[in-house]
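request received
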Amino acid sequence: MQIIVSGLIFGCVYALVALGLVLIYKTTEVVNFAHGEMAMFSTFISYVLLTSYGLSYVPAFLLSLLFAAFFGLAVYFVFMKRVQNAPHLNQVVLTLGLFMVVNGVAGLIWGYQQKSYPTAIEGKPFQIGSVFISANEILIIILTVILMLVFFLIFRFTKIGLAMRAASQDTMASELMGIKVTTVFMGTWIFGCVLGGVAGIMTAPLTFLSPNMMSEVLILAFAGAVLGGFVSLPGAIFGGLLVGVFENLISYYISPEMKIVFVFLLIILVLYVRPQGLFGGRKLMKKV
Amino acid sequence: MMGILSNKRLLLSLLVGFTLVYPFLFGQSGYFITLFVMISIYVITAMALNLLVGNGGQMSVGHAGFLTVGGYTVAILTTKVGLPLLVVLPLAGVVTGVIGLIIGLPAVRLKGHFLAVATLGFGISIPQIALNWNSLTGGYSGLAVSRPDWLSNNLSFFYLIILVLVLVTWLIHNILKSSLGRAFVAIRESEVAAQSTGVNLSFYKTVMFMISAFFTGIAGGLYGYWFGYVSPNDFTLATSFLLLAMVVVGGLASIPGAIIGAVIFTILPELTRSFVGLNNIIIGIAVVLAILFLPKGLVSITEFFKKRSQPITVKEGTDRTGGMVKDANI
Amino acid sequence: MLTFKDVTVQFAGLTAVKKLSFEVPEGQIYSIIGPNGAGKTTVFNCISRFYKPVSGSITFIGEDLMKLKPHQVIKRGIARSFQNVELFREMTVLDNLLTGLHPIMKKNILSIALNLPSIKRDERIAREKANEVMEMLNIEHLAYEKVSNLSFGYQKMVDIGRAMMSDPKLILLDEPVAGMNSNETEKISQLILKLKEELNYTVLLIEHDMSLVMEISDLVTVMSFGEKIAHGVPKEVQNNPVVIEAYLGEVEEDAQFV
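response:
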């Protein structure tokens, strides 16, 4: 039980990152490999605010999310907007390039040694039944659930959500219908990066703070997103959680080093049976 | 300059000539020969990856895994089985090719990012497996590779690598210009039309993975022989990324493109090696700039020269008969 | 030669083709016409095996087509062109045509990699064939041009040319003159007649251009909303009141149906 619960906590982080990835992919059709690194950078910003400027947790948290939003905005306008119509491979490689730049810049500024990052809420772990869980971990779960609910509501019931859904269906038609695609894409990058930022700040106390802290998280979140079908928001969350739990079970029962191998075996198995992922729509034949 | 660029044969002989005298230009310095060997290894890998990604349109974010498999195959076959190089090197290709086949089978059903994740998983799983399968791979400490006596001299090994490099380039060139190569591009351009011209999608996608893995395995094998040692972290996820960058920045679906990309992205990290952060920044910036300003890759620069030296041919809307077929004799 | 028997195709509950039966006799030009959305292209996609009928049977020279995979269809002697041109855009015209010869090229990886004489010979024969086809279509001067640089009319020609490469017994042409002017249309109609008379192809044609259909077809089937509503030689069909009624619903088509 303890294993499943800790798995769920990591799963929450993966789900948040996966959610950001899927959100960006769904509307702009870009798989953002730099997502984790951008999240890491925002986390470093919050760390600087906390330690060098002595801010308390909540303002530091919010300010760094604001930074994440601007970061997303900048990446969209400076880079991604220019390759909007380029082949997907070019877009992917561009985000890989950004991945390296962001990682390098963070390394230059803050160095590659790991730092410990303060948790949001201090305190001894609670015991619920046979499961130990710390206050911070509970916060992660609550925050994830809230963010997911908020996103679900925005996507389903607001005009912005509708515009986003429309733009993801057909860019040209939406443009003709008066939806400003640029604004929608911009919004998507902002939302996606804020989600990433939250995930980064949640991850930092669990692992350590370092420029490389998000690479594995990103890979597993990516795996979760794919498991969920890559176009489905609930799928991303479910996939993230599933990967978290599965990974923890493997570390416990088989070997912690082999967890990634097994996670990908699971994914390849799932994709072999359902090439569109668990929550992906039915594959449509191209009309000829 | 233009003349040289547009005369393929001259360019080729200049290139080969340069490589032949290369060791003497740098006084047979071990460092420069190693650099050249690394370039050759990456050139082979980039060409193999380009066949898959550029020509075939299939994503792979895990080619480093094939390099590792090739390296370990060489290590195991020389030290544990004791086979000679001329058998081992092709076998490294065959073994890796078989692994590529196994990866290709499920990958055939996947598209785009799904394929990216599957291959990504392969790329990061291989070092983990190498790390944990102690009995076969020597775990963390890796495996030694014994170089045969007739190659103990760095210079002779250098010429062997050039030989392999030229041979592989020739083989890949032949494959790409054949009906096989056309089938790969056909799959990239339109799966529907490819099928109706008789191209069996799953078969050719698997074959693509297999061929690509085969040559990558040979490159991995060369690596093992040159350094005399393989370990789990020789080729990581970062290598896979770098390989993709080589192919895209150099030029997709182009052999010269792969070569240019491989040369640049082997030398660049070497120059900036001593600064870990800076290293990433510079490679990253190079990638970003290339994508933004040269979306068809560096090789498109030479095409630009070629275009200038040739008369411009018929383009859209310039049909001299106003979009009609010129002759009534159909 | 090609027989459809009670073929029904459904997509998510929607019936695209309903109990369709017809038979294409060898050596003739057989046209399928009908208003937009009548299910004509669906018929082609069933023959190409991209769609799977829910019931009925399709046979070609006595062989059950339903057992084949899409890539095997061409080996039985059925090649096709596409409504909106489905070419390999980044390839040259020549390479597009050569790909059309794929089913009969040698594919031994080893001999290809080593560029053995047998492969060279194969390639030379293939090029000769491609030149023949280009000559017939009068596009030799475009051999080394990238398809994406060509006008739509030329792209259509290349699409048909690619289908001709394998010398099929039956060629499926999906709206070969859509988007062409009258001059180009005339040339295509000459070409189609030539396919039948000189190359002995059987032609199955989908077309909106009524004058073309009526001029060159031996037999015509009219479809509307997935069903066959009329069948016969062009003259009969032209005067069939059911057909006229079906077309009246569509103003655009009506204009062409003179």
